[in-house]
Amino acid sequence: MKTAVQFGRRTREFEIIESPIPHILVDSKKELHGWWEGIEPYGNRECTAERLLINPYNGCTHNCFFCYAHALGGYFKTFREENGIVTVFRDFDRIISNQLDKVSVASCGYLSPVTDPFQPINKEYELSEKIIKEFVTRNIPIQFTTKGRIPDDVIRLIKGQEHSFGQVSILTTDEEKRKKLMEGGASTDELFRNIERLADEDVFTVCRVDPVIPHVTDERGELEELVNRAIDSGAKHIIASCMDIPASLKGEIYAKLEECFDISKSKLNRLYTERIRGDFNADLGYRRKLFRTMREICDRAGVTMALCMEFESLGGKNVKGLNREFMSSNNCEGIDVPIYVRRGDRFEPVEGCDGNCLGCYRSEKISVCGLPLNEARAWKLRDYRGWTKEINQKARDKAQRTFREGWF
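Given the sequence above, the corresponding structure tokens read:
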């Protein structure tokens, strides 16, 4: 059997591989890149630190019904409309290896911002483990976010890289609720065990309560239980968000919440009144109350917290991030990960860099890395290559000056 994937006016056909789950293998030259949007001109960036985003798979069989990725096109549309066909980017670790070898500056890798790196198909191809190895063997930090079980090899790989860390996403402490919210993924107990396993190896660990589902997982007592259990398991930082709803999925998500949790569409309509960047967001007053509650819980528990992609509309396309109002850490992921630069065969952290490029932008500081990362843009691989040329040219110029001074 074959499937066709449409990109604009172009269509590509792929053979469907049925085992271990339906998937397609795709040869791709896609590149590492930074965040999708920069702070200018509309304020659409909350992420304080730079990242190199990595998605070895498109489509995710954990299949959280509220996931924004269901609204994406291309291979994500194939997953959504054709019985969960996952796209696997063949030998993507080799592509990344080649790209890393051609740069002399790198930010922390992020595996993965859109699909779970440890979903079941990864057991077949192990692209996530291979990609992590490409980063850590060069001494470049990498992070991951998962609702699945973390493979033992992953913990072994990242524990030797001082700025690499793990994020475990936990929606609720109620296993029956979790099963209604997502088809796959690890059990609640296994997710907390993930945190324990990371902490036992002294790996910095984040618990993401991301997102909180209004009228389902937003009761203070349940949130307190989740945060306290995460801390007891070894989490050092909490990240929270409130579920937003892509406009194209509104009816479907409303119907699912009504079916599974008996929440009426009228009740949801009264709450989801704010339209930001094409998504419906819960009323700002509700969100502020929720985030004040989370901040109080975290402060009392002695753990830092931050928000993920939470904005206040300023009218038109302009928004303001809410992190400055609620965040208690320097960087939104709770750990300061500096920019790394090449020193021979390995990369080393830039001395004095705390990785908070958005903070440099807001304070108008001169970056200690000497690069324009304080502009907090949506950087591409070509930008990293451009900075590499500048660094290499400066090194050549310095070598020539040293030679001339020694000669004369």
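Residues 2-399 form a domain with the TIM Barrel fold (CATH 3.20.20.70). Try to locate this feature in the token string yourself.
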